[in-house]
Amino acid sequence: MENIITVKDVTFSYPGEETPTLKGVSLDVHKGEWLSIVGHNGSGKSTLAKMLNGLLLPSEGAVNVSQYTTGLPDDIWEVRRLVGMVFQNPDNQFVGTSVQDDIAFGLENFGVPRDEMVKRINESVARVGMEAFLNQEPHQLSGGQKQRVAIAGILAQKPSVIVLDEATSMLDPIGRIEVIDTVRELNKKEGITVISITHDLEEALSADRVVVMKMGEKAAEGVPEDIFQQRELLKSAGLDLPFSLKLSEALRHQGVELDKSYLTQEELVNALWKLA
Amino acid sequence: MEGTPFERRALHDINLDIPDGTFLALIGHTGSGKSTLIQHLNGLLKPSAGSIKMGSTELKAGGKKQDLKSLRKKAGIVFQYPEHQLFEETVEKDIMFGPRNFGVSEESAKQTAARVIEMVGLPEGVLTKSPFDLSGGQMRRVAIAGVLAMNPEVLILDEPTAGLDPAGRVEIMELFYSLHERNNLTTILVTHSMEDASRYADEIAVMHKGELYLHGKPTDIFNEREALKKAGLDVPETVQFLQKWNEKSGLNLALTKFTVEELAKQVSQSLKKRGN
User: Fold this and answer.
1) Residue A227's domain is classified under what CATH number?
2) CB pairs under 8 A between A and B
3) Could you tell me which residues are beta bridge partners of residue B26?
4) Is some CB atom of chain B closer than 8 A to the CB atom of A247?
5) Beta bridge partners of A157
6) Tell me: the pLDDT tens digits for B160-192?
7) Contact at CB, A268 and B265, closer than 8 angstroms
8) pLDDT for B222-265, tens place per residue?
9) By the CB < 8 Å criterion, does A89 face chain B?
10) Which residues pair with B154 in a beta bridge?
């Protein structure tokens, strides 16, 4: 499988900190996949996210995006165009006075000519379903809508990868679904690679692969079906079990003879029905 | 902003009685009016019409300001991301700030700081540290201690677990629940999480478009799944699962407690009955 990002033996310390925040982390991100990165507060997952588009540079090791390297000054702009970040707080990343100004801001930074800019703005707002809001001001938008505008701003730069850094954690359930559905469509239909840093285990369950970070190290990596069976690992990484797994376990505790733990409610109901 | 083009009625004709000692969950999506409502409860906002009564203190529309102080002393609010409000040089000074403002002597405020830091599960040694040298989770506990130092009778929590990892979320909610039980507090939890509401609340109030949309015991609220969906909400996962199981098995089971353990017990008993 083709890799879009490779993280190789990356160690990183914030200035003045004795213990490194990332310790020898290596990671391949496959082109077109949805990769969820989970871990406790302070596990280094957000720091890792900021490594991916060169907002932070490794103290040791290297991060490569396509044929570019984040540590090389000649490559950094191309890296940032290819890897777009959506951050946690919708209010902190809305810089324009209207939706179209906000998207134009990023394009201006890359020196895109005006005609091309107008075309790209119209295209990208349509792809996140915000075309009716082009002239709206930020305070007229919900949190989920602001995050979709942030995503449109990234799309306008024709990226290969979108990194969601806890981008739904400040949204209500409706906003969360709005944003995840938007990104999922981009992932499935357009093959954009998605890396999602999240505390939302149900979201991680639907990822192609999951990486578990713990104390600055990569503690595990694999498909959700395998990762979420590892109860002790999840607990020690400050995570909880997703609902259906927790219920599977509680049922076994009550003497119900389930053959395994199930990931979804539907699977579990069907398995129970067979026992009845 | 009365009389300006920005005037918008955020709350409309809310009538809500909260009995002493209740754990009330206030649920609704962004913009439903729940934050506006709690800002009335400790006098940060004054009603345009109507009144708020807490114990013997009453705040009326057009009323005078002197009652605000006693209202604020009765009701302590833990805001979202409370750690952002820490500002003093030491944890002890930060906690003492509130009581000192209300005229408590230095000596007595110090004793209070020692008492409340223990209540939030932090060692006394933390008192002499700078709040900014602590981890995010510890900072949040310090901020909560600062609210407890005012000896509130009513504790108002505005999404107190936002941004925490799953393990941290459980820890903080368990902390509030034990404070509620041990100190006979009245607790109002503003949340997006139906799971937290189902686990801890005696009563649930659902806000929708500035109105009190539903109010009752969790069992009653969760019978209104269609109404909840209209407000952009849903029943907790335990209830969702039981509904699926009821449909499959033709049974009519109901939960009184909304924990995974209770659900597992009900389902396993229904299996055993069928087995006989």
Assistant:
1) 3.40.50.300
2) 100
3) B190, B205
4) yes
5) none
6) 988 788 888 888 999 999 999 999 999 999 998
7) no
8) 999 999 988 888 899 999 999 999 999 999 999 989 999 999 99
9) no
10) B75, B186
